[in-house]
Amino acid sequence: MYQVRAKKHLGQHFLKDEAIAKEIAFSLSGEYPNILEIGPGMGVLTKYLFENPALKDIKVVEIDRESVEYLNENFPNLKDKIYSEDFLKMDIEKPYSTPYSIIGNFPYNISSQILFRVFENRDLIPELVGMFQKEVAQRICSKCGTKVYGILSVLLSAYYDLEYLFTVEETAFLPPPKVKSAVIRMKRNEIKKLDCDEKLFITVVKTAFNQRRKMLRQSLKPMGKSMEDIDSELLTKRAEQLTVEQFVYITNGLK
Fold first, then answer.
1. Is 139 in the same domain as 207?
2. Same structural domain, 52 and 141
3. pLDDT recorded at residue 12
């Protein structure tokens, strides 16, 4: 019960199913063997990371002090490799200055923030394996034209190959959450830079989805830019109907 008490206020549930913990740990490709685990708690996932022969070095970041004490007492191989701080605020190059992978059973209430942080540092974090609320995982991995396709779907798929790996039932946790969970994998694709102004691209995507029920001609009006060079038929579509490539085209067409 120790971890449940320590982690409950963070919106996290204790993963008790050892088989699932091992499956998550072995879902990392090993292509980037330096690993940072976010929110290890009592180390149910951590111990299987050490069993994965493809992984070279493992570090963890944990904001809860009780969990940090537990890890220090029970995981001697984590000596000097535990960061007792908030991943969302820590120096992203603190664990490693070269590309590394991220893994974790992420707290539901900050999972999207974790993904945005990874996206902003995509060249340093080429791979992520994580457990999310199933609804969030489906949204991340959704394709153009679906109702759950959104900002994260577009931004992440522009730079990562996204895979929905498997669903995790409520009974795998203590206490059981009210929703199902799912594990996804993100691996950096070959696109180093989009063929457009990337900052403007991000703004276009966010602006379009902020009014996702409107046609692009209307949803992009707040940007105050001319759309005369953009195909008029494309501007009759809604944000959820556009591919990454079409968002790039629109970005280049804005004046």
1. no
2. yes
3. 60
Q: Please tell me the distance from the alpha carbon of residue 229 to that of residue 222, in angstroms, as a whole number.
A: 17
Residues 121 and 237 in one domain: no
Domain that holds residue 240: 198-253
| Residue 193 maps to a domain | no
Strand partners, 212: none
Say if residues 4 and 174 touch (Cβ distance below 8 Å).
yes
Residues 91 and 179 grouped into a single domain: yes
Q: How do residues 172-229 score in pLDDT, each as one tens digit?
A: 998 898 999 999 999 999 999 999 999 999 999 999 999 999 999 999 999 999 999 9
pLDDT in tens, 104-148: 999 889 999 999 999 999 999 999 999 999 999 999 999 999 999
Name residue, tokens 């409107």. 214
E strand spans, 77-215? 82-83, 101-105, 127-133, 160-168, 173-174, 181-188
Q: Which residues contact 37 (CB under 8 A, 6 or more apart)?
A: 45, 46, 49, 58, 59, 60, 61, 102, 103, 104
- Helix/strand/coil for 85: coil
What is the layout of strands, in order, in the sheet containing 181-188? 82-83, 57-61, 34-38, 101-105, 127-133, 181-188, 160-168
Query: 102: pLDDT confidence band, cut at 50, 70 and 90?
Result: very high
CA dihedral 147, 151, 152, 158 (to 10 degrees): 110
In a domain, 164, yes or no: yes
Residue 22: exposure state from Cβ atoms within 10 A (0-12, 13-18, ≥19): middle
Same domain, 102 and 180: yes
* 55 pLDDT higher than 50: yes
